[in-house]
Amino acid sequence: MESGTKDDSIEKFRGFHIDDDGDDEVQEIIVDEDDDEDDEDDDEDEQQPVTLGFLEEKEYDWSLLRQSFPSKAGGVPAWLDPVNLPSGRSSACDICGEPLQFVLQVYAPISEKESAFHRTLFVFMCQSMTCLLRDQHEQWKRYPEKASRSVKVFCCQLPHLNPFYPSAPPRYDGTDKPSGTGAKLCNWCGTWKGDKVCSSCRKVHYCSQKHQVTDWRLAHRIDCQRLSLSSQSSDSCSSNGGTTSSEIQKVASNTLWPEYEIRNVDESEYDTEMMEDNGHASSLITSNRVDDTMNSLLQKFEGDSDKKSWASFQQRIVKAPEQVVRYCRDAGAKPLWPMSSGRPSQADIPKCRYCNGAMIFEFQILPQLLYYFNVKNDADSLDWATIVVYTCESSCEASVAYKEEFAWVQLYSPSASVP
Ligand SMILES: [Zn+2]
Ligand SMILES: [Zn+2]
Ligand SMILES: [Zn+2]
Ligand SMILES: [Zn+2]
């Protein structure tokens, strides 16, 4: 039965909530950084409707495939446009040159814009804390200086009719299929386009020499011979390589972050429930553990304004301490800053590099994600207070399939010295 109206079908795409009533009062986005008065408390009173993202184990194998238009964290990206992936310098850390690791993706279509009928934002970062510390200095650079980033965000949008997906909404029952095959992906990271091929078996592809060498050392040296032999009897590559229907990518790397589905809940639902003991049935870490961590972090802050900011941050987060994403694309929406230091001013947010228009806050990632990713608490382990994603206000159409948007990373100690 595919007789649903257009509105029905749009609702069946389970994206992050996009509120398009345009009459929200417009607030200034940036608070004067030297202002020590009670502005943070005032901000709390004018709450924008925020959609929270929580991590859950995926329900089915197909839940996180691209034809399900997932929001997900860890593992490999479910590329929306599976062919024209970011490549070259875009896919690597500008500081150390390593291919970037997939953090998460958020499916956030803009219903009133036909060219963004499907729209997914992808966040990647270098796993090196050394790079992230250097990235801190880079993110303050202003045009025309070229920043070298270790955190990158891409936006991909597709119209309703496109070569990659049927126009009918997904049934979410395991029978959904994409319309075409995707690009060959790297055998090691499963993340980036595999432009390079193993010269011996010519069966497996890699995004970079780095990943080819790593795979050879750890696994492919043995597989390679077997693959070369099997190709003589039948071309297993063509029966196996263009996996249209399942497309479950086998990934050799064991250093990807664990994979989760992101489930959305409106923050307002927690306003009434917050007094009850309502841990999610499926929550993966306990609230107590998050609370303890939050409290211990408070000791780190020296400045009063940071302490105050942290307190109001925590007050808002504690309603649903396992949230990892806060999403709100409304006009005037602001991120919830854990600290008052290390926030960008309006001038620090660049213009859209494609249309030169303004970029606005769209969502932020909270440090709880690091616990789900089992990132250790060592001195050189990856750590951040929040990652804030800004995107083109008009979600402009560009000639590239993946537009690069802007990420601002706030660390707990922005003054940390660069090694
Ligand atoms: Zn790096
Ligand atoms: Zn790779
Ligand atoms: Zn090989
Ligand atoms: Zn733009």
Describe the protein's architecture and organization:
- Keywords: Metal-binding, Zinc, Zinc-finger.
- The chain has 419 residues and is α+β, with helices and mostly antiparallel strands.
- It has a domain at 51-176 and 252-273 and 289-410.
- The chain is built from 9 helices and 12 strands.
- The strands form 2 sheets. Strands 1-8-2-3-4-5-12-11-10-9 form a 10-stranded antiparallel β-barrel. The protein has a two-stranded antiparallel sheet with strand order 6-7.
- Strand 6 (196-197) and strand 7 (205-206) form a beta hairpin.
- The longest helix is centred in the middle third of the chain and has 25 residues, at 209-233.
- The termini are far apart.
- The structure holds zinc ion (4 copies).
- One zinc ion (ZN) binds at residues 352, 354-355, 357, 392, 394, 396.
Brief characterization of the structure:
The protein is an alpha+beta fold. Helices cover 21% and strands 16% of the residues. It has a domain of 270 residues.
